[in-house]
TrEMBL record:
SUPFAM superfamilies: ATPase domain of HSP90 chaperone/DNA topoisomerase II/histidine kinase, Homodimeric domain of signal transducing histidine kinase
Highest rank taxon of the organism: Bacteria
Stated name of the protein: Sensor-like histidine kinase SenX3
GO cellular component labels: plasma membrane
Species in which this protein is naturally found: Microbispora triticiradicis
UniProt cross-references to InterPro entries, sorted A to Z: BphY/WalK/GraS-like, HATPase_C_sf, HATPase_dom, His_kinase_dom, HisK_dim/P_dom, HisK_dim/P_sf, Sig_transdc_His_kin-like_C
Length: 339
């Protein structure tokens, strides 16, 4: 294009000057001088234009080659030859675009591997108690276990396992609804204080069993627009975690207050702090902290906090955790529901 523009401009100018020179009836030496000067000017202009055009074409080819040679890792390396200013800008933009693509792909891969891990862990967590229950049922069926004490113990054990599995399947169902974006919230003006009171009442037996003191400090006038059922579940997940991770004799403090435009609900426990490197991962699906994933007596599936985050985000809120005092503090921030 550059060459065509230059050729057209030069030939049009040349033709014009030649025509004028001939028409103006300049004769002899002056006419030759004019024509020679014009011819040399035209040739020089064409030459410069051609050289420029070749440089630009070569640079743009090297840019195309660089794009074609982007490795599967998705890292773009600009061509080693220096580029003209315009192409340099395009090169920089390409580099940024490839970087964004690469990060996106990495994130996708991490999500995919988390999902695969979840399926593997959950099937493991479901299989272990099922195998135990099967053994107990077979023992009962064959009459191997026939003394009343053992029979009663087996029944209790089976009941406990069934409850745990039911909870886990319910959690998985809730999580899949959150991830599919099909969580139906029926929002209504709700007092955060009432929600805290209900939650504390519900987890009281667990706290007593674990000998953990429960304490609530809720401002009665903290209105939020929320689905009380779902938000209650999120808060319960936090409080149950806090009770489970607080040693006997410790305290779990649940606080609800409003500041300016936001409502804040926090759960402070005495867990002794979460390792710094685990803090950003506690809300990940299937994250359970310890490396060995052998389910303990009340070992969960690592879904509670992922569900809490999904529910809070569906309410346009935020959830976070920091280490504080004798343990850690989980905080839910929600927009304040106006009257
Ligand atoms: N209050 C807390 N104090 C210390 N560690 C915590 C606390 N809450 C969560 N964690 C850590 O984060 C992990 C994930 O918690 P999450 O509630 O998602 O799963 P879980 O409690 O193990 O299982 P689930 O809630 O599905 O029964 C826990 O296993 C624990 O390591
Ligand atoms: Mg939990």
């Amino acid at each position: 294009m550059l060459a065509v523009v230059a050729a057209v401009t030069v030939s049009a100018t040349l033709a014009g000057v030649v025509a004028i020179t001939l028409a103006m009836i300049i004769e002899g030496r002056p006419k030759n001088i004019v024509l020679t000067v014009v011819a040399i000017g035209g040739l020089v202009g064409l030459g410069v234009a051609l050289v420029n055009a070749r440089t630009v074409v070569r640079a743009s080819r090297s840019l195309v080659t660089a794009v074609e040679n982007v490795p599967p890792s998705g890292r773009f390396t600009p061509p080693p030859t220096p580029l003209p200013a315009e192409l340099r800008t395009i090169g920089a933009a390409l580099e940024q675009a490839y970087e964004r693509l690469r990060l996106g792909r990495e994130r996708e891969r991490a999500l995919e591997s988390a999902r695969r891990e979840l399926v593997a862990w959950v099937s493991h967590d479901l299989r272990t108690p099922l195998a135990g229950m099967r053994a107990m049922v077979e023992a009962l069926e064959d009459g191997v276990a026939d003394d009343p004490e053992t029979v009663k113990r087996y029944h209790v054990q089976i009941r406990v396992e069934v409850d745990r599995l039911t909870g886990m399947v319910e959690d998985l169902f809730e999580l899949s609804r959150i991830h599919a974006g099909s969580l139906r919230l029926s929002l209504a003006r709700t007092g955060l204080g009432d929600l805290v009171a209900d939650t504390l009442a519900a987890v009281e037996p667990l706290a007593r069993a674990e000998r953990v003191r429960l304490s609530g400090e809720a401002d009665p006038h903290v209105p939020v627009y929320a689905d009380a059922g779902h938000l209650g579940r999120a808060v319960r997940n936090l409080v149950v975690n806090a009770i489970r991770h607080t040693p006997a004799g410790g305290t779990v403090l649940v606080r609800a207050a409003a500041d300016g435009t936001a409502a804040r609900l926090s759960v402070l426990d005495g867990c002794g702090g979460i390792p710094e490197e685990d803090l950003p991962r506690v809300f990940d699906v299937a994250f359970r902290g310890e490396a060995a994933r052998t389910p303990g007596p009340d070992g969960g599936a690592g879904l509670g906090l992922a569900i809490a985050r999904g529910i809070v985000e569906a309410h346009d809120g935020e959830i976070g955790v920091v280490n504080e005092g004798p343990g850690c503090r989980f905080t839910i921030t929600l927009p304040l529901g106006r009257a």
